[in-house]
Amino acid sequence: MLLPYNDINTNLEFQKQQLWTAIVQAKQDGLSNEEIIENVREALPDAMVFYAETVLKQIDFRTKLSRPVVEFNLEFLFQVIYESVIAGTNDDEILSICAEHCTLNQYEFVRYALEYIHLNRMPSQWEQNNVYQKMIEIVSISPIESLFEYIESIKNIYLKQIGYKVVQENLYNLFLSNKETGYFTDLANKSRDNFIKNYCCRTAVLVARATGKPLDLKVTGNGSILLKEPKYLDSEIANNGIVSSNVLTMGQAGELLVDTLEDFNINAKYVDAKNGPTFNRIRVKLGRGVSYKKVEDIGNDLVQQLGEELGLKVAPMVSVVPGGVVFDIPRLDRQFAYFRDYFTFDGESDIYSVSIPGGVDVDGTYVEIPLYSDNVTHILGGGRTRGGKSQFEKAAILYLVRRYPPSVVRLALSDVKRVTFGKFDGLPHLVAPVARDAESTANLLDYLVEEMELRYQEFERHTSIETIAQYNSRFAPNCVMPRVICLIDECFDLLSDDNYCDRIETALMKLLAKAGGAGIHVLLYTQRPDKNVIDPLIRSNFPAKTAFVTTRPEDSCIILGDDKDKRAVYLLGYGDFLYKTTEVLRLQALYVADDEDPEYFQQLLLEAKNQNDPYTAWKSGLDFDEFAASLYRESSSNDNGKFKATTATKTKQPKTDFEGSFSFKVQLDEEARNSIMNLHQKGYKIDEIVKAVFNLSRQDGRSYKKFRNVVEEFLNNLKGGDEDDI
């Protein structure tokens, strides 16, 4: 580094100018700030050293200001942050990098995105197991209050749910150990978590009922629990209640929301607000000439602007309703709507109006789904894991078998996961045992197609009868044609099965086209509503939709049948869903709580098996066992085990030798195995691993399915095959 000569007679300003030139040249030559200061300190007096330090700071500052500003797409930015979190990058490092490369507004978005991801991301199976073991260790060596504190320290909602289950198990054990009522109310007072408070209060109620002592629970202004009977959500509470966790009243929150919209140049007027079990709904009226598109995607901006005032941690859903636009603000003290609190099963059932439970609306109103309505008939549903589909399905089945005798309602169930519907085996309402694989499901659907044809033949024998409703209105109650509800869980696996997918698709198309009039209703559910797997002809024949929370916006569009409706992404999971017919309702599904209160669940099943059936059912004469046996005889009578090309037995022809036949075999080399293990240890899901290692996604159809099965089998072998779902 060439420095100016240190001559006391030289003009000081001239020396500074020379030093500035020397420092600039040194920076261009690649010297660090420390190296430059060291050279200056050795050759020049302290005053010039101080000046050199000032010059370096100015140069660094100008360099930062002169860097090009890049406006990142927010969806891209969110995806990059999510992948970094999954890969194990800590928050400080992510924020440091983003501070260097993002604008101030984008940096603020990054902060909120990190909080959202930590709250809502799906933890890996390893992480879930680790947290569960930690909780078990805590309760084994410490009082249950220590478990409460550990759960309160967890941000992620899915890990919290694991904690809630552990709490329920331990409260049940404490209940069996004859603890006093006051013990559980004291536990409720020691927790700041509203779910845990609720569990403790309900346990106290169970103790009071068991001991025959009166109990009265109420919550004081500071949140402590006093004795007063807890009340679950009802219409009066929903209409008049104020969310206790919010500082603002709903009216004040509405006015604040309107003021914030004005800051975004959106003219609006506050109309009203309602309280529901899952969210609070604020309705506003947009000003004249203000397009709905201006507020459609404003959710993330509201989290940024009103996150603290309204307790927003996730973006609110924005929807159009008659007379305005509504903003659904998630509740911090979210409630469950329990199945047992809505049904007593007293009195006779209406055999002409078969329905299933829908859920609770925002104003506390219970909404049923009428299967007899032309606007329902068949239902397509979907959503990711822990969205609430299984609870919705179990509530529907439990209600049907307890409300209606077998002469009025019959069930056809398919459950390839083998864990959801198995507990309903043995009910007299079933037309066949619960189908647990693609073959038995194909047989079940072919049986329903044949049953449908026999019913229409019955209609032909009578003048002016075209539907089951007309038939029953003429002949019931002396002769009742039962409605058949076919509920299929996880259709993705069925429609991806190379051997039986064509049979299943053909049967579904026939049933969806005309089975509704014959009283056969199809309820089709899946976690992965892939547009390349579920045929558009199948999707288009569902007049009703139930969309639970989805991972991707395109999944929401597929389920709701609207390329622009991405609202299911903003749902809160655990039973929060959209019910779409001629309009769209947001409901909280009823929670059966079969694991929480197994005695009640088993009692209803026993009552369903033993209920009085005063009606005579119309019978087609078609027996499922004989029908399935005839299919088997037909398939086995062909040479070399080949099936005939009939509706009941044909298999899907491959589109290409590679994709369709599945004749290729996947061999994992050492590099692929190492990559799979590394990604799995970092918390990647199976579909993410397949994408990263083999560059395949669900859009690649059967090729993706083949590689996914190989990866899943490899990971199961690593773990000894202990887990069904990686």
From TrEMBL:
Keywords: ATP-binding, DNA-binding, Nucleotide-binding. The keyword DNA-binding applies. It holds the Pfam family FtsK_alpha. Residues 364-557 form the FtsK domain. Coiled coil: none annotated. ATP binds at G383, R384, T385, R386, G387, G388, K389, S390. Belongs to the FtsK/SpoIIIE/SftA family. This is DNA translocase FtsK.
